[in-house]
Amino acid sequence: QVQLVESGGGLAQAGGSLRLSCAASGGRRGSKQGVGWWRQAPGKEREFVAGIKWSRGSTYYADSVYGRFTISRDNAENTAYLQMNNLKPEDTAIYYCAVSGAINYDSMYGYTGAYDYWGQGTQVTVSS
User: Fold this and answer.
1) Cα–Cα–Cα angle for 105, 107, 64, nearest 5°?
2) What is the rounded distance in angstroms from the CA atom of residue 71 to the CA atom of residue 94?
3) 14-51: per-residue pLDDT in tens?
């Protein structure tokens, strides 16, 4: 069982920045092949934001955040990060981190079913 604790959400103005953290603990060896950030706005479906292959550090982004958000991970701290710059009001949502044990994470990162564990979510609100 992998436990995920997210932090770093809050209120930002348009054009501002926030950094989300996702600390992972527990789980068996190999249970963390990839980590993704997802978000869900009121009345909308959960959508993929960014993902990272834990071992190689390969990164993947949704078109809507490409060039503004950066996903990274710290192996020693077992923590993933999402640096969000140039925030827009449409980025307002609850942000979730999730862990995937999929060996083929590089081709599965955009599917919710590829993720085995989810964090509790953290609210990000961007004012115009």
Assistant:
1) 100
2) 17
3) 999 999 999 999 887 777 899 999 999 999 999 999 99
